[in-house]
Amino acid sequence: MQEGKGNSGSRMLRGFTHRFVPSPNGNPRDSTTLLLLHGTGGNEEDLMPLGREVGRNFSLLSPRGKVLEGNMPRFFRRLAEGVFDLDDLKFRTNELADFVRMASQEYYFDARKVVALGYSNGANIAASILLLRPEVLLGAVLFRAMLPLVPARLPELSNKHVLLSAGKYDQIVPTEQVRELEQLLRKSGAKVSLNWAQSDHSLTQDEVNKAKQFLETHYS
Ligand code: MLT
């Protein structure tokens, strides 16, 4: 696909196939933008309905991960389940952060009002952006995230709210990984709400409702 519009409403910018849907309320400059980050094997369409459900008045920016595992898009390379290629993760984190900044100029949304909503692999790169490029996000909803990396220096995350929603019976994300991410975010000053869903790696309606409430409380 060339830079510009594709067949399905998706566009290409900086090598990222993505969709942008402005806030139904009018000017994207006045709204919060939700950065939607899908899980392994997903694409830019996956989280659009969820994004609209939890952020009725938000603009939605949804990129597709550039890394392919077989034919499954992801946001960064992994060596095995839960074992990440850290060099690639750092590179991809910066690349995605730069894309968000560039998209704010392309679509005229306020770069200071971007909140990530990520699921699984998408939540992991959202956490990595918070840790390495905190200026890009005002906050985040992280569904099924683990600790993606330990940064050389603690980021400054005070005034950022993070909803960390984990599955009590998740076989992909170990409980200690959730706790470690929670502690690192708190140590960096983030206001973390930790929710344990009665679920495995799949999302429940209850945590979707909690995400909606979280976004309404902190970012509407
Ligand atoms: C990852 O690779 O980011 C995590 O293991 C979650 C996933 O399966 O995508």
Short description:
31% of the residues lie in helices and 26% in strands. It has helices at 48-54, 86-107, 121-132, 175-187, 205-219; strands at 4-5, 11-13, 16-21, 33-37, 59-63, 67-69, 72-74, 78-80, 83-84, 114-119, 139-143, 161-167, 191-197. The longest helix is centred in the middle third of the chain and has 22 residues, at 86-107.
Report the portion of residues in β strands. Answer: 25-35%
CATH class: Alpha Beta
**First-last Cα distance:** 35 Å
Question: What's the number of structural domains?
Answer: 1
Q: Give the H and E element order.
A: EEEEHEEEEEHEHEEHEH
CATH superfamily: Alpha/Beta hydrolase fold, catalytic domain
Q: So how many helices?
A: 5
Strand elements, count:
13
- Provide the list of bound ligands, each named once: D-malate
Would you tell me which CATH topology applies?
Rossmann fold
Biggest sheet descriptor: 9 strands, mixed
The residue ranges in which pLDDT falls below 50 over 5 or more consecutive positions are 1-7
Structural class: alpha/beta
What's the architecture in CATH terms?
A: 3-Layer(aba) Sandwich
Q: Gyration radius, to the nearest Å?
A: 16 Å
Order of strands, main sheet, comes to 1-2-3-5-4-10-11-12-13
Provide mean pLDDT, rounded: 95
Helix content: 25-40%
Shape: globular
